[in-house]
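re: ur question from yesterday

yeah so i grabbed the chain u mentioned. its 376 aa long if i counted rite. heres the sequnce exactly as i have it in my notes:
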Amino acid sequence: MPEVSVVIPSLNEERTIEICIRNAQLALRDENIDGEIIVADSSTDRTPEIARSLGARVVIPRKRGYGNAYLEGFSAASGKYIVMADADNTYDLLEMPKLLKPLRENRFDFVMGTRLKGDIKKKSMPWLHRYVGNPLLTKTLNSLFGMNISDAHCGMRAIKREALEKLELKSRGMEFASEMLIEAGRKGISVTEVPISYYPRVSPSKLNTFNDGWRHFRFMMLYRPTVFLLIPGLVLFIAGMALTSLLLLHGNVIESSMHSLLLGGMLTIIGFQTINIDLYTETYSMVHKMKQPSRVARKFLDYHSLETELVIGILLILAGLVVGFKVLLTWISTGYGSLGEVESAMMAMILGVLGIQTIFSAIFISILLLDMAEEE
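ran it thru and got these structure tokens back, copy pasting raw so excuse formatting
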């Protein structure tokens, strides 16, 4: 069995795959390391032919995607240490020994390259990525998951096989980079960084700044929905309910306070919907074992107790209908003329919307939990 497996995902990189493979081979030979090079390739050009001609093993992922390529490459790798790098030659594989050293000395289990503390060559990283996107996403990940990383999306990494096997990696796209670090933090795997160089691409970049950034952000939200959804939802809901209640208790809503009443109703509904989305996210994370839900969340999301939410939703709708029917009767009694039942109409709308949202949420969460209920 080789000591090191170098896994390189590739997609139409025929212009640079050769130099990447040769640099990896040279680094292994200079360090007297027995290694293998695995190219996880989804190309339509000559990339796989070039890789095979240089002695690399080529595996074909069943589907395209950054995460898919690495998952396929990892399954084929047999080394004690796994090195990751891109096929576009933006990372210098001659620097691979720097990442392997902390692993071989048994000081750490997972080593990240850091471009931001290393040498970023001119025109290799867009200003927006270097000073906004990468630092912002890295800081968010560090804050949420207790990490201390300077460059969370660096693609050059090295990890021990036993550490890699502890990570429950599932992501198929670019968010795979974030998932590795999040899982490492969850599993208590020791992580360090070493400065590396970063070079300009020869071929056009395949990254999509906003789409890929959103995918990383969305993935972090799946692990920590409370910060992104529950807390803001509660703030909006409580503020909306307080404003609406204050105006309704005041009595007749005059024209000057109509907008405030509408704002209160809108905040109440938006806040309640945000809380529901948090519950959807918690349920998805629980079903896919991405995180351990709290005891309160687990009890609330129990498949066999969601009938309670259905009953609550029905009661809210009935309450809204009663208030709405009262408004209708008042309108009839005035001879279908001008109607001043603004407070009651707003209350009927809020109760009805909250009731419908509660019922739909209970049904949707029940569907998400269906497989778990059958296992029980």
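noticed a couple things. The first strand starts at residue 4 and ends at 10. also Residues 4 and 270 are 52 Å apart (CA to CA).
anyway ttyl
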